[in-house]
Automatic annotation (TrEMBL), chain A:
SUPFAM superfamilies: MetI-like (SSF161098). InterPro entries: MetI-like, MetI-like_sf. The lineage of its organism: Bacteria, Bacillati, Actinomycetota, Actinomycetes, Glycomycetales. The chain crosses the membrane at residues 16-39, 74-99, 111-133, 145-165, 198-221, 247-265. This is Carbohydrate ABC transporter permease. PANTHER family: ABC TRANSPORTER PERMEASE PROTEIN MG189-RELATED, ABC TRANSPORTER PERMEASE PROTEIN MG189-RELATED-RELATED. It is a multi-pass membrane protein. The keyword Cytoplasm does not apply.
Automatic annotation (TrEMBL), chain B:
Pfam families: BPD_transp_1 (PF00528). Keywords: Cell membrane, Membrane, Transmembrane, Transmembrane helix, Transport. This is Sugar ABC transporter permease. The keyword Cell membrane applies. It is a multi-pass membrane protein.
From TrEMBL, chain C:
InterPro entries: Bact_solute-bd_prot1, SBP. Pfam families: SBP_bac_1. Gene3D superfamilies: Periplasmic binding protein-like II. PANTHER family: ARABINOSE-BINDING PROTEIN-RELATED, BLR3389 PROTEIN. This is ABC transporter substrate-binding protein. Residues 1-26 form the signal peptide. Keywords: Signal.
Amino acid sequence: MKVTTRRARLLRHTGFYVAAFITTAFVATPILFALLGGFKDNQQLRENALGLPNPWNIENYTDVLASGAFWQQVFSSVFIALVTTFIVVICSAMVAFVFARYAFRGREGLFTLFAAGMMFPFAVAVLPLFIILRSFELLNSPFGVILPQAAFGLPLTIIILRTFFRSIPGEVEEAATIDGAGPWLFFTRILLPMARPVLATVSVLALVGSWNSFLLPLVVLQKSTWWTLPLGVTQFSGQYASDTAKVLAFVMLAMLPALVFYAFAERHLISGLTSGGTKG
Amino acid sequence: MTLKESPRVSPVTGRPDRRAGSRRRSGRPGAGTLATFIAPGLMLFLLFVILPVLFAAYVAFFRWNGLGGVPTEFVGLENFRNLVQDEVFLGDLWRLALIVVLSLLVQLPISFGLAMLLHQRFPGRTAFRLLFFVPYVLTEAVTAVLFRLVFSPRRGFADSFLANLGVDAQIGWLSDRNIIMFVIFGILTWKFFGFHMILFLAGRQNIPDELYEAASIDGATGAQAFRSITLPLMGPTVRMIVFLSVIGSVQLFDLVYVLTGGGPFHASETLAITMYEQGFQRNQIGYASALSIAMFVISLVFALLYQRYVLNRDLQGSITTAGGSRS
Amino acid sequence: MRNPLLRPRALVAAGAAAALALTAAACGDSGESDADITWWHIQNQDPLMSTWQEFADDFAADNDVTIDVQAIENQAFKDRMGTASQSGDVPDVFHTWGGGVLAEQVEAGLVQDLTGKLDCIDQINPIALEPYTIDGKLYGMPFDAGVVGFWYNEDLFAQAGITQPPATWDEFLAAVEALKDEGITPIALAGADKWPGHYYWTYLAMRTVGLDGLASAAEAGDFSGDGFVQAGQMVADLAALEPFQPGFESAVYGEADGQSAVMGEGLAAMELMGQWAPQAQRDNSGTEGPENLGFFPFPTVAGGTGTTTEWLGGGNGYAVAADAPDEALDFLCTLMEPENYTRAIAEGNLTPVAADVAAVAPDLNEDTQKVVDALATATGTQLYLDQAYPPAIGGVINDATEGLLLGQLTPEDFVAMVNEAWAAEA
């Protein structure tokens, strides 16, 4: 690369920027359409779909923000995501710990069973899950969403955590054992603190998976009490079908939490995805 | 990851399992302790993952409207016989194949190209990387509502944009049976290229720079280095992304269901949408269960074959382990 | 560490207890006390949406209950009701059109028998109760009833030189051609919703084989007769003229660019729709609707037995869940209180089902009057097929009509699909 002249580099950079800006336009246009559309009224949307709002109209946004339904949905989404994450990370860590550090008969078989769970498309299970949840009386309850989501999150989380737990040298455990720590103490006091970064990663994956989940809440949560944001957005767009500007405002506000979260947890999200793919 | 391979090969590292746990240690915990650790996860998994799949396999042999009670009307293989003659189901398979082929031929090369681009050092590349990943973060269902408005006739963005360019094309973005799958593919690309790009980028960054330096010393041109270093060493990443992409396509639901509901007249229907319609809208739980089982078998057979013939060569160093989803 | 088993167990137990507590708390929030009423209706447009909300709020305040009101778009409502019926937990008060869909819900034990329980029932015209009466028992309370017919923009018809509304199918097709020649979109249709399309096939079948023919076909589960194939062929022929607005394939009824808005903005000359159409045109387009809106019955078919006084129609009503609190019944009667009902009729342009129409609606809106007149002179009515038949069959009819309209199915395919659905249901 030493032979590269200044001009060649300039040319190359121009090429980069052209490609990058085209892609940027491709990515950003729909989002800007929603953002700006929310500031228009329907008259403006019809006559001026492309331009800036004139006048800027904040009513759509304030209407949504003032509605109890929106905040209820934000709360449900957050609650369900947090509890799902908590359950899936705790359960997976315990299982992964045993799989990583102890030998016992049937271990590989069990591990294979869990790992095979990654092959089960969630959509396959949703219909029987619905009937099972019905007999547990978990329909219309947030736990009807949380427990299956957590269960489907186990395989990936276990695989990632097991890898990490295996990478911790045996000497650490031996030292702990000599100090009199049993497996439980070793797990909670030594292993989990050491695993903080990877726990953050799998937590982010579980959070995002739950946040985006649609099919399961769609069938489980018929009543609006526990509706999550994805359900709320689709319902809102049906209810206010003729008020396009307001729907755009709702869409924009529904996207906002994910964008903010991404801005803060980008590192964990990316490292989680590149280390394990995703499992919604 | 397969049922067969994993006992011998760790799916994570690809290395033969050294039985890390079989090392002798003092203070071995008893079976009870181990069981306590495993029990909560295993219970959850058996109840909400294994049981539903078994239950679907059972119900698939019945005619059942699902309204209370248990299935009683055993019909043998009838649901499966009807399934393989159901033009909607066969169409779903075609559309699945179309999406997969388009992803492989268009979406993945674009993501690959952008990953190579963003691997170069130039001012602002971090910002671009962050930005390109944004669509992946957005919820599919919300994305679909947005695109329904983007493509809405008359007041949507797409038509206005074309009209501004002087094209009065009246394209039926969502209403033309002939183009609907391509529109959906476009949206899928919007949504997922950033994800694939990030995976490619990670794969590229794992290739040591020394290799390129050595090649350059040997007088290799950039194109030669790309052909003989980048491509082969990116192989595992590529193969894994293909795997994720296919498995994700099999269960495509949220985006299409909200965008088109599978229409016009099934032109954009997916396996999961057909299952949902039959099961929840028409109360044909038995038939829908047969469809679920078909989806399961498709995923499983693909996973096993892919593992057997493609992945097992290079589990070593693959950037990701297994599975994945678009939803 | 004497007993390593102790602590993990204790922790798991604590975890389980915490989970249970959470569940309990969650159920406490969502679970219904006796005085909670959930209400799903499909009046998702103002003014009626606000009126309903107001009635609910007033009732809640007066009776010390809470009412969770959900205004759901028609198609979304049907989807959600399907899942809710499966879940065995339907809302306390929910919209119904009666018929086979209601019957299936009744059979599943989800719906309360209202016979003799509604104090206000004698205010309602007994004829309007018919679709909600199953095996002699009443399972729903109607608040509106009417017919489906062609609502047309008289100015656009005049522009195309059509002076008389078409009385026969041939005249109708000629009118479609004339409108097209004038550059006017003849018909607005919500293709994606499917149910508006099924009116065409149903009406054509009613005109070819007559109401009796339709009834006996449903009885036998056999739609193979020539009249049904002919009806399908006529739907296909109509579609071949390309009479619908651009993009109708993905249009829904009540969207900003949907069937109703297209009519409201005067962008299409007619739509085949029920009594709610004029109001919906205004609501969805945000305009005053076509200045001169006319109404004509579905034309007759040469050689067919059906007449123009036989109407496809139905009403809107509410059913009550089997486990709903008694307040739900009182609430239904609140809607029928003369003062409230009069207001709803006026604001929502409902077609009244009152036994004494003059008392609640002294001067009906012009459009509503047309529907009332049609009902008054009707010699027979047929409930919308997608509600009259069980969901599996209604779904197939809707779906197959869409196939016909998009040229994806032949009339023979159509008949075979419907027959198959009946056979599976038997």
